């Protein structure tokens, strides 16, 4: 991936951080996006670690649900690293568990703005640069919950379904321009968000046992597993793959 420039949204920790580190290891320069001020320090840590390892990276703040911020973010990346030719739409609101009857209109809109609209805005912002390069990779991080129909996550699952549908339609449109568009469906990945949601004694052990029963591969999924799949889809080896949904879930939801 030498010479490629990647923008990874929601990359201050967890899966996003692992994706950044893997893309840099494979030769790309990476822009580490975060939205809120509370994540600025985390994003800086990611960039510092990449620089220490000899890679090129920058921190770039921006709320993906705001068109003006997205355009500014993409321009900043182009000015410092070069035009974005790899986009990983990873930013998402995830802490939204609860009965669907408790979802407020504002809550629904917040999830859709970040998870679905944010993906669209980022794709739109990087499109011209990819067309000019005659090469592009767009990778959208969806969720296994779309395939399992997870309860108590109605608006989150709906947003990931929108992401998968957009992936397929966009792939048809931009394929002739040398751009591929794919989605990845992570399973139960041991991310920072999961660790926060399972802080009570015994919760993590119980989750590990539950997933071992559901999956074909009886181990916990890790952020590096998702990063490896992203690296493949971003590579030239995946140049004939587009419009697809790749499950990385240890053989849980098969389709």
What structural keywords apply?
7-stranded parallel β-sheet, Rossmann fold, 9 helices, globular, single chain, alpha/beta
Walk across the major sheet and give the strand order: 3-2-1-4-5-6-7
Taken together, the total number of domains comes to 1
Second rung of CATH, namely the architecture:
3-Layer(aba) Sandwich
> What is the CATH domain class?
Alpha Beta
Question: Which secondary-structure class do the elements indicate?
Answer: alpha/beta
Dominant shape? globular
Q: For this structure, what is the CATH homologous superfamily?
A: NAD(P)-binding Rossmann-like Domain
What's the structural blueprint in terms of helices and strands?
Layout: E1 5-8, H1 14-25, E2 29-34, H2 40-52, E3 57-61, H3 67-80, E4 86-89, H4 105-133, E5 136-141, H5 145-148, H6 154-174, E6 179-186, H7 192-197, H8 203-214, H9 223-233, E7 245-248
Parallel strand pairs: 1-2, 1-4, 2-3, 4-5, 5-6, 6-7
Helix pairs in contact: 1-9, 3-4, 4-6
Short description:
This protein has helices at 14-25, 40-52, 67-80, 105-133, 145-148, 154-174, 192-197, 203-214, 223-233; strands spanning 5-8, 29-34, 57-61, 86-89, 136-141, 179-186, 245-248.
Describe this structure in words.
This protein has nine helices and seven strands, in the order E-H-E-H-E-H-E-H-E-H-H-E-H-H-H-E. The chain has 255 residues and is an alpha/beta fold. The chain has a single domain, classed as 3-Layer(aba) Sandwich (Rossmann fold), CATH 3.40.50.720. It has a seven-stranded parallel beta sheet with strand order 3-2-1-4-5-6-7, with helices on both faces. The longest helix is centred in the middle third of the chain and has 29 residues. The chain is globular and about 50 Å long. The chain starts with a strand and ends in a 7-residue tail after the last strand.
């Amino acid at each position: 991936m030498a010479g490629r420039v990647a923008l990874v949204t929601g990359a201050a920790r967890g899966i996003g951080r692992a994706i950044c580190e893997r893309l840099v290891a494979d030769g790309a320069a990476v822009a580490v996006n975060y939205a809120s001020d509370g994540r600025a320090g985390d994003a800086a840590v990611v960039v510092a670690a990449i620089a220490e390892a000899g890679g090129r990276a920058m921190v770039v703040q921006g709320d993906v649900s705001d068109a003006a911020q997205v355009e500014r973010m993409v321009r900043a990346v182009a000015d410092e690293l070069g035009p974005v030719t790899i986009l990983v739409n990873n930013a998402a609101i995830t802490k939204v568990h609860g009965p669907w009857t408790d979802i407020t209109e504002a809550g629904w809109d917040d999830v859709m703005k970040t998870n679905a609209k944010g993906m669209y805005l980022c794709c739109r912002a990087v499109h011209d640069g990819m067309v000019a390069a005659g090469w592009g990779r767009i990778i959208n991080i969806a969720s296994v919950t779309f395939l399992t129909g997870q309860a108590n996550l109605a608006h989150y699952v709906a947003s990931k379904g929108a992401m998968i549908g957009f992936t397929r339609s966009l792939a048809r449109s931009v394929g002739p321009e040398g751009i591929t568009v794919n989605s990845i469906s992570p399973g139960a990945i041991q991310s920072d968000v999961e660790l926060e949601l399972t802080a009570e004694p015994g919760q993590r052990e119980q989750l590990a046992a539950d997933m071992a029963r559901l999956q074909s591969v009886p181990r916990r999924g890790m952020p590096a597993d998702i990063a490896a799949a992203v690296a493949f889809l971003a590579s030239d080896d995946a140049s004939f793959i587009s419009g697809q949904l790749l499950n990385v879930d240890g053989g849980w939801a098969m389709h």
